[in-house]
Amino acid sequence: MFQVMRIGENRVDVNFAGKLDSSEMRTGIEQLAQQSEGIAHGRMLYRVGEFKMPTLGAMAVEVSQIPQLFKVVRRFDRMAVVADKEWVRKVSEVEGALIPGLTIKAFGSQQTAEAEAWLQR
C-alpha cells in the first residue's frame, strides 16, 4: 500500500506498508507528484507500516523516476518519518543528510504526536 494525501496548502502525508510491485510504485510516485504540485517549503509526514522489500520491478521504476523524485523532494523543507523499525528510521535520517535543503527526522510509531509537532515548527 502506498497512499498519498494532501493535507492543506503545504503538507502531504504518505502511508506506506507491505511490499510494492512496479505498478504500485509507479502509481505512488505519480500520486506524490500530483499531490505535491504547487507546494513550496512543504512538510511531509511519512508513515511506514510493516515494511517489506519492494520487488525488483518496483526498484527499477523508482530508479527510472529519480529525476521526478528529486523535483518533488525540492518542494519540501521537512519530512518526519514514523516507523517501527530502527533501521528504517536510521536510513531515513541518512537520506536527509544527503539531500540539500531537506531535513528528515525519524520517530518511533508511538511518537506520531511528536512528529506532527516537529513538522509545525
From TrEMBL:
<dbReference type="Pfam" id="PF11964">
    <property type="entry name" value="SpoIIAA-like"/>
</dbReference>
<protein>
    <submittedName>
        <fullName>STAS/SEC14 domain-containing protein</fullName>
    </submittedName>
</protein>
<dbReference type="InterPro" id="IPR038396">
    <property type="entry name" value="SpoIIAA-like_sf"/>
</dbReference>
<dbReference type="InterPro" id="IPR021866">
    <property type="entry name" value="SpoIIAA-like"/>
</dbReference>
<dbReference type="InterPro" id="IPR036513">
    <property type="entry name" value="STAS_dom_sf"/>
</dbReference>
